[in-house]
Amino acid sequence: MADPTEAVAVEEKKNTQTTEEKKNTQTTEDNSNTTDDETHEDTNAEETHKSFRDLGVTEVLCEACDHLGWKKPTKIQIEAIPVALEGRDVIGLAETGSGKTGAFALPILQSLLASAQRLHSLILTPTRELAFQIAEQFEALGSSIGVKTAVIVGGIDTMSQALVLAKKPHVVIGKSFRSHREPFRTECVNSDVFVFQVDKILKVIPRERRTFLFSATMTKKVQKLQRAALQDPVKCAVSTKYATVDKLQQYYIFIPSKYKDCYLVSILNELAGNSFMVFCGTCNNAQRVALMLRNLGITAIPLHGQMSQNKRLGALNKFKSKSRSVLLATDVASRGLDIPHVDCVINFDIPTHSKDYIHRVGRTARAGRSGKSITFVTQYDVELFQRIEALIGKKLPAFPTQEEEVMMLVERVSEAQRFARIEMKESTEKRKRPKAGEEAADDGEQSSGVRKKVKGGSFRGRSKRGR
Ligand SMILES: Nc1ncnc2c1ncn2[C@@H]1O[C@H](COP(=O)(O)OP(=O)(O)OP(=O)(O)O)[C@@H](O)[C@H]1O
Known about the structure:
Layout lengths: L7 H8 L3 H13 L7 E3 L17 H9 L7 H11 L4 E4 L6 H15 L6 E5 L2 H15 L6 E4 L5 H9 L4 E5 L10 E3 L9 H7 L5 E6 L4 H10 L4 E4 L10 E7 L5 H11 L5 E4 L3 H13 L4 E4 L5 H12 L5 E4 L14 E4 L6 H8 L9 E7 L4 H11 L10 H5 L2 H23 L35
Parallel strand pairs: 1-8, 2-7, 2-8, 3-5, 4-5, 9-14, 10-12, 10-13, 11-12, 13-14
Antiparallel strand pairs: 6-7
Helix pairs in contact: 4-5, 5-6, 11-16, 13-14
This protein binds adenosine-5'-triphosphate.
């Protein structure tokens, strides 16, 4: 399977290892006695001064980190990288936005440098979007060593994906099978077998391999996977089991179910100028709310599993490039997505699995930034909300709102809801009878027939409370 001729760049870099790097490798070896513990909990003060070089990361990859503006490693990187470089299996537990991707990508790239090999690693992610994001991270870190990646996910032409695979990339990134919604995040394997089902994969990949498992939450399913897939792993935990980050201001708002749309519009208006990720429980609701908001002049776009993969990526890119300020998403966007400019996460529909709460709110306040989350709690959600508070070990404050002001929006919001219903109906009809060569407008961007008809026009630019 090794194909040295095709991995020239990787091989060349390997041969240019400097004395400095050799010294660094030695440092890791010297430290190896301290990494034998089964569990590495948190870091001490002096570790926060460590550099990537101190962790044993090779010079060319240190330069890549530098290029990305990563001045020093994060806590999980400090804990996990040396252990992974030693060749151990790793379980990495750290809060959202804490740099877990780098914690497994750097050791994988370094191992690739040491033995240039096609189909060197397989990364499994819980969502398609995360698969693309991880590929970008590998390419950013590995650009100077010529690393080749391939993303293999559903919803994209299988023939073109087969062609990409046939070129034997170094790293293959795919979404794990639907039944494994839990964040089985990374598998580092030396194999050219690739099937999208974890149990099946485990049966066919070589026993002789290294496996990394990274997540912000440890669930029973992840523990089961750990037993099935990892060998004598070292657990690197740098956060308490279900912690949310300190710089995240978390609020809830207790409201009657029938006024959810009005409260959403009111908050978006009040915090205008921010970027929002709004989580909905169903694809239908994400679509409906996006259309409703657009009828009020708010630049909203949906992202859910009933959209084609092209539209999903398109929606994400529009939100990433800030041409849309509100992303209405289902849980396809709750795990791992790294969009630094997200200021506020709104749980429009409360998550039914409380651990999803941690992943959703973790889309803001990433990498040391601050952020805000607001969870809508209706008369039907009290128990679920109590479970969330119990999980994160915190009582959340109420988000202050003026009920009278929200109620003043009822008429305009009702009209926007009515138009949204018409648009939903139109697009369902279109989907049933698509014209030749026309892709179904599953992000609703084209359904502008009734837009801007809501009295009172746009809501934008009426911010009362800034960031
Ligand atoms: N050492 C570092 N210094 C500065 N920024 C970093 C460093 N490592 C990673 N980052 C940045 O931090 C952000 C979050 O990283 P990443 O997406 O890997 O977090 P995560 O822990 O995987 O989050 P999640 O649990 O939500 O998946 C990214 O923008 C990444 O580029």
